[in-house]
Amino acid sequence: MTSQPITLTSEQADAFGRELDAIKEKVVADLGQADVDYIRRVVKAQRAMEIGGRALLIAGIFPPAWLAGTALLAVSKILDNMEIGHNIMHGQYEWTGDPALAGRTFEWDTACPANQWRHSHNFSHHTFTNIVGMDRDIGYGILRMSPDQRWRPYYLGNPMYAFLLMVLFQYGVALHELETERIRSGQISLADKRGVLSEIWAKTRRQLLKDYVAFPLLAGPFAPFVLTGNVTANLIRNVWSYAIIFCGHFPDGTQEFTVEETRNESRGQWYFRQVLGSANLTGGKLFHLLSGNLSHQIEHHLFPDVPARRYSEIAPHVREVCERYGVPYNAGPLPKQFATVVRKIVKLALPTRESRESEELAPAA
C-alpha cells in the first residue's frame, strides 16, 4: 500500500472541500465573454497555423520552408489536442451554448475517437484518479507506474514500452478503451471489443489517409516534403503530449491509492486525492498555452469542467488552502519533473520492495 505523508480527519476534509468549492464557485460566477473570445482566438490561430504550415510544406524543397511548415503544423496539432480538444471535450464551454464548443460532439485531430476518450478519460480517469486497478491511466495498460502494481517479468521492458508509447502516443491513447491488459490476462477476448476496435480503426484510418496519403498527393512532386513534414509534426505532438501528461501524473511526490483507501470517500476526501495524485509544471504564458494549461494539473483534476485558461488565477488560492491544511502541493519545472518520471519508469521495471512483500504474503496455490 502506498504510504501517505499526511491524513485529514473527516471534519478537516469537509472543510478543505468547502474552501475549494468556494474557489470554483467564484470563478464560475465570473465566466463570460472574455472566456468565449479567448477560446475562439485560439481556434482561429490554430486553424491559421495549420493552413500556413501545410502551405509551407509544399514549398519544402527549400529547407527553411520545410522547417517553418513543420513547426507550424506541429504547434497547430498541439493546440488542437491540448488547449482546444481536451478542454472543450471536458465540457468547459458548455455554458456558452455554442455548438462549435460543445464537448459531447467535438472531434479532434488525433487517432483516438472522441467518444471513447470522453469515457476513458472524462469518466474513468477523472473519477478514479490514481486508484490502482481502477484508473487505467496508471500505465495505460502497458507500463508499471506504481509499486502497488504487481510486478511481472513483462515489466522488464518498461523503459522500451515507455519510449514506444511516447513516440506513438496518439495510437496508445487510441487503444486505451480496448483494455489490452484485460485481453492479455484472458478476462475478455478481442471479440468482446469488436465494436470498440472498429471505431478505433475507422478514426485511425481517416487520420492516416489525411496526413500520409491525401495531403502528400495534393502536393504532387513535392509529396516527400509534405509526407516527412506530417510525420515529424505528429511525432513532435506525440512527444510533447506524453511529456506534459506524464509529468502531471507520475513525477516524484505524486501518490497512488488502493480501492480500500478511497472507499466511501467524501467530496473533500476526493479533492484531497486529486491534489496528492497530481503535479504542476512551472513556466510562462506560452508554455501554459501549449500544455493546454495541463501544466496546472492539480487545478485541472480539482475542477476539470472549469475553462483551463482560469487555472493560473485559481492556482495561488488552491496552493494557499493546501498549505494551511498541510497538503503537499507538487510543482516544478518540466525538465526536473520529467527526469523523475524517467527514473520511476526504470526503477519500476524491476521488482520493488512492495511487490516482493505482496508476493510473499500471497497464499500458496
UniProtKB/TrEMBL annotation:
CDD domains assigned: Delta6-FADS-like (cd03506)
GO (cellular component) term, any one: membrane
Taxonomic superkingdom: Bacteria
GO BP term, pick one: lipid metabolic process
Molecular functions (GO terms): oxidoreductase activity, acting on paired donors, with oxidation of a pair of donors resulting in the reduction of molecular oxygen to two molecules of water
Protein source organism: Mycolicibacterium sphagni
Keywords: Membrane, Transmembrane, Transmembrane helix
The name this protein goes by in its record: Acyl-CoA desaturase
Domain Fatty acid desaturase: start-end pairs: 65-331
TM annotation in the entry: 55-75, 154-175
